[in-house]
Amino acid sequence: AAGACRPRDKEPPQAARALREFTGAYPLEARPNGTVRSFDIVAEPTEVELVDGQKLRVWAYNGQVPGPQLRIRLGETLRVRFTNRLPQETTIHWHGVRLPNAMDGVPHTTQRPVQPGETFVYEFTPKDAGTFWFHPHVRSSEQVERGLYGLLIVEDTAPPPYSRDVVWVVDDWLLDETGQVFPRFNTRHDLAHDGRWGNVLTVNGRTDTVLRVRPGERIRLRLLNSANGRVVMPDFSGLDAKLIAVDGLYLREPIDPAGFELAPGNRIDLDITFNQNLAAPLPIVDRFSARRPNVLAHITTEGEPVTPPAFASPARAHVPAWSEGLHVPEHHAFRLNARRGGPFGIEWTLDDKAFAGHSAHHEPALTLTSGRFYRLRFVNESARLHPLHLHGMFFRLLARDGTPVEEPFFRDTVLVHGNESVDIALVPTDAGSWMLHCHILEHAEAGMMTLIAVR
Ligand code: C2O
Ligand code: CU
Q1: Residue 299 predicted with pLDDT over 80
Q2: Alpha carbons 57 and 186: distance in angstroms, whole number
Q3: Are residues 125 and 69 in the same domain?
Q4: Could you give the CA distance from residue 167 to residue 266 in angstroms, rounded to a whole number?
């Protein structure tokens, strides 16, 4: 493993330097401390009081939407005994977690799908602390939409002393006139647009979420966008809020969260200090669509003031600049496109290839060598949004439309806008077959998925 990170002779000098900078960025190996944390998870149809107290028929992990919050410490081993009581086969994918390929939850690639009635044990030691999530990787446009998702929080070995650690899971539901989940999935409308955008936005499964804090509290707020298609841009102006982590990993330094596009799959962690009383409940508004802002939730201050805990921001990770990365020859440019055909009438393609379902045989689109520096490009030849997600590794955004972008953080999901090209850089470290796909789940189901092999 350590030897796998040696630059090759052929590598351009910039890449070799980028690689040296990289090796301190995040640990190559997990460091299990011997503690195993066991959870049981059952997926089954149930009813929850989700939206305004009405009964909604959902599919849920352990009877709740969002599913259970799994919290462990870095170094601990997670063991999940998973039972499928759905009417369909399924798996659990651990989004953003660097883990052994066999635990990645991709049907037919990393495991047999878990049939109704069957049990499968997922066991791994995460290499990184941070905010991660889990969801099925079988018919995900249906299974995630029906309510199957949960958070995996890996705490630091010594968590920073926030007054509170709060989680907001944002979801977007398309309900029909009876108030139930609209039962047709992968419609032509969804496929011709940015996937399934709903008519009810929830935070932690409610439309009326209020976060009540005491003046002086300093909180860590973790946000996940678990929607199938909707992108949100939460506005925290009016608060002393700093972005400290993206897709799990800490930033190089805290930055203003304004303008962050939280696409399906993305997570952000904020460090918010309530220096003053809020005069009135503050709405946190999604401003992704300037014309149609949505209120996600409210924050109020109440109660006796407390003294804010004083500590340095945990956002001081080693994040290589990689500005030279743009001069490294591009390894591959993926073209993102749509065409007529396929089981849903419209197919979404990468390099004119539509993924023919997990059960078909697939040659990897790319075979990358562990420990090498790569620049990849995504060229969106369509007018639609594509939040591209890569399993099993993090990457850095280098440029949008050829213009360098310096983000002080890694990602596992990047939103590619209509007709945009995006350059990313990465150093794969873990061998296996890893998926690259659009996290607009309808686009993924309609073909926008592929495999990347790492040797
Ligand atoms: Cu959120 Cu292929 O994953
Ligand atoms: Cu897409």
Answers
A1: yes
A2: 19
A3: yes
A4: 14
CB atoms within 10 A of CB 107: 20
Q: Determine the distance separating the centroid of ligand 2 and the alpha carbon of 323, expressed in angstroms.
A: 27
* CATH code, 172: 2.60.40.420
CA dihedral 92, 93, 95, 101 (to 10 degrees): 140
389 and 293: one domain? no
Is the minimum distance from the CB of 435 to ligand 1 under 6 angstroms? yes
List, for residues 136-181, the tens digit of each pLDDT value.
Answer: 999 999 999 999 999 999 999 999 999 999 999 999 999 999 999 9
Considering its fold, how many domains does the chain have in total? 3
- CB 205 within 8 Å of CB 65: yes
Query: Is 375 close to ligand 1, i.e. is its CB under 6 Å away?
Result: no
Range of the domain at 227: 164-301
User: Which ligand ends up closest to the CA of 441?
Assistant: 2
Range of weakest confidence among 27-31, 285-289, 414-418 = 27-31
Task: Examine the pLDDT at 16 and tell me if it is beyond 70.
Answer: no
Considering the domain boundaries, does residue 177 fall inside one? Answer: yes
Note the ligand closest to the C-alpha atom of 388: 2
Task: Say yes or no: CB of residue 242 within 6 Å of ligand 1.
Answer: no
